Each structure stands twice: as C-alpha cells, then as structure tokens.
Amino acid sequence: MVGLGNSRRGMKSPPLLVAALVACVIVLGFNYWIASSRSVDLQNRVMELVGRVRRAAAERGAVELKKNEFQGELEKQREQIDKIQTMHNFQMENTQKIHQDEKVGGSCLAMMWVRYH
Q1: What family is it from (predicted)?
Q2: N or C: the chain end with fewer CB closer than 10 Å?
Q3: CA–CA separation, 62 vs 93, rounded Å?
C-alpha cells in the first residue's frame, strides 16, 4: 500500500516547528494566566458592586419608610392647623357678634337711660 505523502518511517519533526509550537503554548498559557487574573479581579469588583447596590437598596427602603412617616406626620399637623384655624375663625365671629350685640345693647340701654332720666 502506498500512503499519501512521504512514506519514510520514523520521521522526526523539524526543530523549528517544535520550537514554534512550544512558543505558541507558552504565549497561550501566558494569555490564559492574564485573562484568568483579570477575570478574578472583575468578579471581585462585581461582588463589591453587588454589595453596594444591596446596601443602597436597603438604605433607600429605610429612607422611603422615614419619608412616608414624615408625610403622615405632616398631614396630621396640617389637619390640626386646619382645625385650629376653623376654631379661631369661629371664635372671631362669635367675638364680633358679641361685640356688636354689646354695642347695640349698650346703645339701647343708653337710650333707655336717657329716656327715663
């Protein structure tokens, strides 16, 4: 049988080809080592950022709760102010009515006093 290509048995690879293959393996190994180091650094950075995001989300939740609490207190205080304002207006109207009644009553009394004296 005749094989394809050179039929010499026990053919040795040329030393230049072996050197080139070893150089390629070294370069690929070095690149893999650099890529692996970068990958670990990036994974650590991602974990750090995930931690920051979780802390920020927790802080935001706490701030939202406080905000809602303060808004509730503000609404209660506004309602109290409205009640106080309504009571004040009512008291002012009553005071004015009493003052007018006293004025009218006082002038009537004065007229009666003058009339009978």
Answers
A1: Belongs to the GOLM family.
A2: N
A3: 46
In total, how many domains does the chain have? 1
Task: Give the span between the Cα atoms of 31 and 37, in whole angstroms.
Answer: 10
Report the 3 state secondary structure along 39-76: HHHHHHHHHHHHHHHHHHHHHHHHHHHHHHHHHHHHHH
Residue 69 lies in a domain: yes
Asked if residue 112 belongs to a domain, the reply is yes
> Could you read off the pLDDT of 30-44 as tens digits, one per residue?
999 999 999 999 999
- The residue segments making up the domain with residue 49 are 16-117
pTM of this structure? 0.49
The answer to whether residue 3 is domain-embedded is no
pLDDT tens digits for range 64-78 = 999 999 999 999 999
